Amino acid sequence: MSTKNTYSFFKGVERSFDKAAKFTRFSKGILEQIKACNSILQVKFPVRIGDQIEVIEAYRVQHSHHKLPCKGGIRFSMEVNQDEVMALAALMTYKCAIVNVPFGGGKGGIKIDSSKYTVSDLERITRRYTSELCKKNFIGPGIDVPAPDYGTSGREMSWIVDTYSSLNPNDVNAMACVTGKPISQGGVRGRVEATGLGVFFGIREACSIEEDMKKLGLTTGIKGKRIIVQGLGNVGYHAAKYCQNAGAIIVGLIEYNGAIYNEEGIDVDVAQAYRSKNGSLLNFPGAKNIEKAEEGLEQVCDILIPAALEAVVHAGNADLIQAKIIGEAANGPLTPEADEILNKKGILVIPDMYLNAGGVTVSYFEWLKNLSHVRYGRLEKRFSENRYAEIVNSVEDLTNKKISEKERKLILKGPDEIDLVHSGLEDTMMGSYQEIRDVWMNTPGVEDLRTAAFICAINKIGVAYEELGIFP
To answer: Where is the catalytic site (predicted)?
Structure first.
């Protein structure tokens, strides 16, 4: 039985924070400041829906101001409440610190079921929410920069940037008030797949360390690893797709209304198309049906990737998990009680606050692009291609051999925006994992990667507060 209804997500985050704080050098006062939510906005505003007026409940939380702007997504869900938004904002603070993105954490949410509204209704709700944020000074390129989250996409972000721009006509950087926008509205190529691709890079990096894999009884590398993915939304789909492309075997896929399992492997694209056509993964050809979605988490695999909502692995089912590695693509998919059970079982848990940081990393690239008012690659692409051509020509002259036209095109290609974005994301995820692992390996008493990740975040934020000199 799930404990989600009685579970405080924010208290769970605080519990993990307190566990890690004992391994840092900072005073109680600084630790309390890092942990606290700086600003919490709850608003209720009227919107005309058809012939009726509906009062919409919404939130925006700015968890930390140690660096500005604050950064975090906006979700549309009936599950939205203050506790959840505070927890997600706190995780954003620590997440940004871990991957060296200079933002404070923020998060927003509107308590609605998107499926019950027309596109026009959703636009009115989103624009009114944005105007409320503007009135309360909770949005701006240097103040607070939202992004897409569960239930939102580039469409909603384009409405937000348009509303903000109309209310702030003299802000030359208005486009940087939100990220995750369509490309035509100042978005960056590579943002859509960023979180899922970051999950892949993080899991691949973890699987590359022979010492850790040996303890789990696994070989290095992602190729051949059996993977179950829970949630085929944007994050889960791209994580599964990139893992599959790297040679992993997707043996299970889980959605809210059931799961499918095939030890021989499931093609992610075929399964996605089947679900779109039939409204469910169940009865997918060649796969076994699992009617209860939760039981899909308990099937045999090497890697489990929960990529939906929080608290899906809890005290009631943690002991039934058979995976050797859990990659937290969602925010808070494991409760603290589940964490303890899994750590005792020797399962390697790659924590959410690191693993799903691909979205905010590429959002940072988009924000920088908007502030600089220039597309990535525009300044260096042609220069790079000309330099590569000179090198190839020199080699051909020295060796008296010509390379094929196909090879020439491959070698001479300069970086496009998406190449630079993917490269920056890969470097971020690889470097950050090594930072966390170094803390894990070299701090006596630290037993898991989550605690190590919190220590990394607390150390960076604590130093920032000390250097700000805000404590009289």
So the answer is: 107 (proton donor)
